[in-house]
Amino acid sequence: MGQLDGRTAIVTGGTSGIGLAAAQRFAAEGAHVFVTGRRQETLDAAVAAIGARATGVRGDVADLADLDRLYAAVARRGAGIDVLFANAGGGGFSTLEQVTERHFDETFNINVRGMLFTVQKALPQLNEGASVILTASNAASLGNEAFGVYAASKAAVRSFARTWANELKGRAIRVNSISPGTIDTPGIDGLAPDQEQADQLKSFLAGTIPLARVGRPEEVADAALFLASDQSTFITGTEMFVDGGRNQI
After folding, report:
1. Domain 8-183+217-242 falls in which CATH fold?
2. Strands 32-37 and 81-86
């Protein structure tokens, strides 16, 4: 038997990287997984990779109408929501002097506004004892140069986890955050103008990590499975770092 047999899970931003790895892990453990993504082609590919237990719903978490379509699809299945992995997010480099309104709005729209309404709109369908997992980032507490807007948005996510864990405790709903460090995903590659510079960036960042390497999406997915499963029923409001020790040592 799988750890999530018979359960319904949602993974936003589930078409690549951490989200795809988590969706695959949840499905392998017996869950039916709804995944979201903004591009139909990559969404279709993700659903094919996850298998028969996956349903794809195209949409952007920053668009409330798209969220309504997601939860309408979930409602048609009629089983409620046992696991919500609010993972969609993104960001880029910009120093204080360089920050523009567009950079700020795009980052906060997906990482903060999108996160809030993803969880809010799920509330009517969250089953008693459900697990809500938010993707934060170790960047929120590192103070890396040129990453201030992204870090601030992820600090807000960490704060959401604390508050929502308190607000939803009456329904035995657990809310936790995962803070990945440098993980080898398309998002990391997208921070550099080409693959060569992306590899150089990852090599540099690996040198700052006690385990001396970047992480794999599957390693974050394993942490998400732990928080989604009955192995973590006495854990809520916490921040789980999956960063090779970067923030701890």
Report:
1. Rossmann fold (3.40.50)
2. unpaired
